[in-house]
Amino acid sequence: MHALEVKNFTKRYGKNLAVDDISFTVEPGEFFGLLGPNGAGKSTTIHAITGIARTSGGMIKVFGTDVESDYRDARRKVGLSPQEFNIDIFEKVRDTLTFVAGFYGMHGVERKKRVEEVIKRFGLEKHADKRFKELSGGLKRRVMLARALVHKPQLLILDEPTAGVDVELRHELWKHLQELNKEGMTIILTSHYLEEVELLCSRIAIINHGKIVKIGSKKDLLKDGKHLEELYLSITQSEDAAPL
Fold first, then answer.
1. Best CA proximity match to 159, nearest among 171, 145, 146, 170
2. Which one, 6, 60, 157, 171, has least CB within 10 Å?
3. Residues sharing a CB contact under 8 Å with residue 187, sequence separation 6 or more, in sequence order
4. Distance of CA 110 to CAs 102, 139, 152, 198, Å?
């Protein structure tokens, strides 16, 4: 069973074709990079996977569960850490995590135990009773990861997870993500920091003008000593780049 199966996915907003009949899969335990310029269709694809947007055509399944016909079950299997801080900034960290765990059906002892687990995992013990707005940028990113993982999802989607943090904190967050992946977590990463994707991901897809224009293992894509940035620019800056 695929961790994620996207088959002939199309999304239109009125007359605008945002995503044009794309298909790809992500396997359990993979660290998968989804790249593309602004407006290429990355966010639309993520929104469809997480149920924020409905498909105009095609099918998307998360660990075999259709994201539209069985939305609730599919959504429980996904953890999303978005680029924007879509969180109550006046809420305390522990209270935020407790609420989200409850929202996904955790109660009582199980919920309290899980909240404390993610607080400890991301080094938030000293900050758990602080309001979100009182935290540094790096701590805020850790809270977003903790919130995405508190309900024990099978698939973690990261949208610019290190945006706005300094180099030292970025490396700290990378370490957390590598550990999660080594433990078996399936991760999809979108990022404009191409060195981040090159370091973390084992397989990469590039989307441009709503089409998948390149997909493959990092080893195959970056053979002959190429860097991801070089490949990415050669594809996205080519007006006549042919989709697969």
1. 145
2. 171
3. 30, 31, 32, 155, 156, 157, 158, 177, 180, 181, 200
4. 10, 25, 12, 37
**Short-list 194, 196, 189, CA closest to 234:** 194
Of the spans 68-72, 80-84, 185-189, which averages the highest pLDDT? 185-189
| Amino acid present at 110 | E
DSSP annotation of 162 = T
Please report, for residues 14, 83, 237, the alpha-carbon distance to residue 42 in angstroms, rounded to integers and kept in the order given. 18, 12, 17
- For the record, the structure tokens of 45 come out as 């694809």
State how far the Cα of 176 lies from the Cα of 184, in Å rounded to an integer. Answer: 13
Residue 9 has pLDDT above 50, yes or no: yes
Q: How confident is the model at residue 138 (pLDDT cuts 50, 70, 90)?
A: confident
